[in-house]
Design a protein that fits this description.
The protein is an alpha+beta fold and 185 residues long. It has a domain of 115 residues. It contains four helices and six strands.
């Protein structure tokens, strides 16, 4: 057999295999469908759409409130003890006003935690799961203040006691206050 015949046979078998693979992978003439994608009938599609409508919100946001998520680490989330349904105070550590030292202040108090990470419900499992986001329920004004504070400074959470109903005093502590030992009691 000469080289020309070998090349012609290779091209012929290559085309034949390409057509075979194309035919096997494109079911019902849809070449975009993957091989492992399950075929759904119309009822299953409607059931999934209905399920999707109920799964959009796992938590209820009170009228006039909004949900906002903030990035947290282990320290900012009180060693991951912050759970959905708990209440927190939000502390902002801000480098302003310009010309003064950094100060910390309670920005928001008695804020409901809607979710941690992707967990929307408290589970019976006692593990402290790792999460990097906390979703809080705030008014639009509180959300705006929180978004601004996290852009210019550091935001951390203080976990409130389960029975605590009292609002926190809007405390501001500056570097000078720490050095002088001046703290309100």
């Amino acid at each position: 057999m000469n080289t020309k015949k070998i090349w012609i046979l290779a091209i012929f078998f290559g085309l034949l295999m390409s057509i075979l693979v194309y035919t096997l992978t494109s079911s019902n003439g849809n070449a975009n469908q993957t091989l492992n994608e399950p075929q759904l009938n119309e009822q299953e599609i409607n059931d999934q759409e209905d399920l999707g409508m109920t799964e959009k919100f796992f938590f209820e946001i009170q009228p006039g409130k909004r949900a906002i998520s903030i990035a947290v680490n282990e320290v900012q989330s009180v060693s991951r003890f912050v759970k959905p349904g708990s209440y927190v105070d939000v502390v902002a550590i801000l480098p302003f006003p310009i010309g003064e030292h950094t100060s910390a202040r309670i920005l928001l108090d008695d804020i409901k935690v809607l979710a941690v990470g992707k967990t929307f419900q408290i589970e019976n499992d006692e593990r402290n799961e790792v999460y990097e986001m906390v979703t809080l329920e705030v008014t639009p004004e509180e959300g705006t203040a929180l978004a601004f504070a996290k852009e210019i400074g550091v935001v951390t959470l203080m976990l409130r006691g389960a029975d605590e109903q009292e609002t926190s005093i809007r405390t501001k502590i500056s570097f000078e206050d720490l050095v002088k030992g001046k703290m309100q009691r």
